[in-house]
Amino acid sequence: MSIWKKKSISLLLAEATESEKGLKRTLTAWSLVALGIGAIIGAGLFVRTATAAAQNAGPSVTIGFIVAAVGCALAGLCYAELSSSIPISGSAYTYTYATMGELLAWIIGWDLILEYAVGAATVGIAWSEYLNNLLTNVLHMSPIPYSLCHSPFQKIIDPNTQEILQQGIINLPALFIVGVISLLLIKGTQESAFVNGLIVVVKVTIVVLIIVLGWHFINPVNHTPYIPEVGTYTDDQGIGHHYGGIMGILGAAGTVFFAFIGFDAVSTAAQETKNPKRDMPIGILGSLAICTILYILFAHVLTGVATVEDFRTGGKEASVAFAINKYMIGYEWLAQFVTVAILAGFSSVILVMLLGQSRVFYAMGKDGLLPKAFGDLHPKYKTPYKANLAILVIVGLFAAFIPGDIVGDMTSIGTLFAFILVCFSVIVLRKTEPDMKREFKTPFVPLVPILGIVVCLAMIYGLGWTNWLRLLLWLAIGLVIYFFYGKKHSKLNNPEE
After folding, report:
1. Do 258 and 48 form a contact (C-beta atoms < 8 A)?
2. Which of 9-18, 358-367, 455-464 has the lowest mean pLDDT?
3. Rounded mean pLDDT, 27-47
4. How large is the average pLDDT for residues 219-240?
5. Closest-CA residue to 470 (of 264, 239, 265)
6. What's 377's DSSP letter?
7. For residue 315, what is the DSSP state?
C-alpha cells in the first residue's frame, strides 16, 4: 500500500466512458460559460470588493482585481488543458491523483472543501444579510431578529459601556437557502443549469447598470490618492490588516480573489458535458474573461461613488445598496432592484459551489477515500444525492454558526492552494505523459504554470498568518482522516475490496 500510488490516465478515461451507470451528459459550452459566470459574479463582487477597499487598498482595489485575474488566468489555462484531457468529475482532486499520487490527491480533495463547501457557506451568509436589506428597504417590513440571522460569535457592543447589546445564536436564512439549493441539485443538473442561466442574465444586467449609471456619480476625491499611503487597519474582530502600498494591494488581491472562485468549478462538471474536449476550455476561459472586465469597471465605480469610511461603517456587507441609496440620488429604485437581483445571484453562486463540492465527494466516494455512499447516484435523477445531503449538513453548519469574513478568507486560501497544485500537475503530466492526446494545450509550459504558482503564492502571502494557520490546521485534520479511513479503504491501494 503506497500513499504515492497514482491513478493511471487510461483508468480515468475508462471511467469517463462508463456513461450508462454514470452522470448524464447534458451540458453545452454555453451552459458551462453560464455556470462559470453564475459562480463567479456574486458575494465576491458585491461584498468582498467593499471589504478589500475598507481593509486593504482603498480605490486601488482595482489593481488587486487585476493581480487576482492574472493568477486566475494562468491557473485557468492549466485547468483548461487538464479538464479537456481528463474529462471526469473531481476537478483538481482527479488531476492530482493522476499526477502526484493518492496522498496529495486526498490533500487537494480535502482542501477543495474549503473552496466549495466553505465558499457556499460564505455566500449563504451574505444572502442572509441581503435578505434583511430586502425586508427593511424594499418591502418595508421588520428585519429578522439579530439573534436568528447571525453566528454565536457575532455581537453588537455598546462603544461606551462595552456591554453586549445583541448576540447572535444561529443564521437561519443562510441555512434555509443552502437547504433549498441542495434539494434542487438532487433533482438534476440540467434543471439546475437552466435556473442558473436565468439568474446569470439578471446578474450581468445589474452589474452593467451599476457601471453605466454609477459612472456619472464618481467623485474624483474618492480616488485620491489612488494607492493610499502605507498604514494598518484594525477590523471589528480586532484583526489588523496591511492598508495601502504594495502589501495592501496584495492583501486586496487575496481578499477579492474570492470574487473569481467559481470558474474552476466548471471543470468539476466535465463528466456531464456533451463535448468536454471542446467545451471545457470555452467554459473556463470564457467565463473568466467576461467577469474580469466587469469586475475592474465595477470596482472603479463603487470606490469612486462611496468613500472607504462608508465601507467600514454604514455599508458593511450591503455596501453596494448603501452606496446607491446615499450617493446616486434619483436611482433609489436601482438599490431595490440590486437587492432583489443580488439575492437571486447569490443563489446561483451557492448552486454552482454545491454542484462542484458534490462532484468532488462523488469522485472521492467512488475511489474509496470517502464512504462509498457518496459515489451512489439517485436511481431516477442520476445525481449523487447522498453526497448532496452530506454537503447540506456540512455547509449548513458553517453557514449557521461561523462569521462570514472568516470563512471567506478560508475559501480564498484553500482555492489558491488548489490552483498551485493544478499548475504543478500540468508540468508533471507533460513529463510523465508526453504522448497523451490534449485537445487544448497550455501555452509556454513550464513558464505559464510557474508564473501561476508564483502569483498564487503572492496572494497567499497577502492573506496573512492567521489564514496560513487556519489552512495548516484544516490540512492536519484532513491527514488524520486520511490515515485512519481513506488509506484503509482506497480502491487503488486495496483492489481486492
Report:
1. yes
2. 9-18
3. 76
4. 82
5. 239
6. P
7. I
Q: What is the DSSP string of 27-94?
A: B-HHHHHHHHHHHHSSHIIIIIHHHHIIIIIGGGHHHHHHHHHHHHHHHHHHHHHHHHHS-STTTHHH
Distance CA 403, CA 235 (A): 13
Residue 286: all three cell numbers together:
470564457
Dist CA 439 CA 92 (whole Å): 18
Stronger pLDDT, 94 or 307, i.e. the higher one: 307
What's the length of the chain? 497
Per DSSP bridges, beta strands 164-167 and 155-157 are antiparallel
Lookup result for grid cell 424594499:
138
Q: Are 298 and 53 in contact (CB under 8 A)?
A: no
- Residue 303's pLDDT band (boundaries 50, 70, 90)? very high
What cell numbers appear for 271 in the block? 463528466
Q: Is the Cβ–Cβ distance between 394 and 120 less than 8 Å?
A: no
484: Cβ contacts below 8 Å, ≥ 6 apart: none
H-run or E-run covering 231? strand 231-234
Nearest CA to 83 among 119, 35, 45? 35
Distance CA 222, CA 224 (A): 6
Task: Count the Cβ atoms, other than its own, within 10 Å of residue 324.
Answer: 26
Residue 466's φ and ψ, nearest 5 degrees, are: -65, -35
Place of cell 451507470: 21
Give 386-396 pLDDT, tens digit per residue: 888 988 998 99
CA gap 243, 250 in Å, rounded: 10
**pLDDT score of 20 more than 50:** no
* Cis geometry, peptide bond prior to residue 225 (ω within 30 degrees of 0): yes
Mapping DSSP onto H, E and C, the string for 101-170 reads CHHHHHHHHHHHHHHCHHHHHHHHHHHHHHHHHHHHHHCCCCCCCHHHECCCCCEEECCCCCCEEEECCC
pLDDT more than 70, % of the chain: 89
In angstroms, the CA 260 to CA 186 distance is 25
pLDDT of 252 > 70? The answer is yes
